[in-house]
């Protein structure tokens, strides 16, 4: 009898304990659930709010990358030896004369050059294109002065061709290449010099119609100095390169 009473008491206590535990757990869940729901809502809300900031950061990174690419594009992808003396005869190098000196020298000889842009613009094109390809722009401009007679022309080539170095003019009856703009004409001139002076391909797309011809003829060989153009750029041209360098030194005096 006593055992039965104790057993019933134990069962009742166990059931009571289980009931209380269930209630406690249920309340715990009820207390926890709203927090969890709130947390999820909060996180979703913050995620939505952060998306515009994320896009802004991505856009900023893309713009920075574009700027870096633009700067990299302006810088030569190769090393260019610095020109230190007016007696340096290399075709590849950096300018010694300023753009102002080039303009002044031209106008001192021919105040009214027959060109499609201003003298300052033309000289600026030589410096821009020369820097891009590593060609000395001041000496290249001196070559243009020699080839065009200080932009007076009067020979086979005419001003409307924007051809400043006699490209393709192989005889008195062959006018040579035409270029749509002054800058493209300058670019072709610089690329033609590069074709002789280096096996490296131009940075800009080739516009020189005789670039491939020169490269095919010379292969791995190059002409490093202006006087090496004697009899090659101009025929017979015994002192062709020397006369260009003399004009370049005259520019330096302006």
Folded structure, characterized:
The protein is mostly helical and 254 residues long. 58% of the residues lie in helices and 0% in strands. It is built from 7 helices and no strands. Helix 3 packs parallel to helix 5. The longest helix is centred in the N-terminal third of the chain and has 73 residues, at 2-74. The termini are far apart.
Helix content: 55-70%
Low-pLDDT segments, ≥5 res: 1-32, 36-44
Beta-strand percentage?
A: under 5%
Query: How many helices?
Result: 7
- The helix/strand series, from N terminus to C terminus, equals HHHHHHH
The overall strand count is: 0
- The structure class reads mainly alpha
Largest sheet data: none
Q: Mean pLDDT, rounded to whole units?
A: 83
Please tell me what the overall shape is: globular
State the separation between the terminal residues, measured CA to CA: 131 Å
Q: Compute the gyration radius: what is it?
A: 39 Å
Oligomeric assembly:
single chain
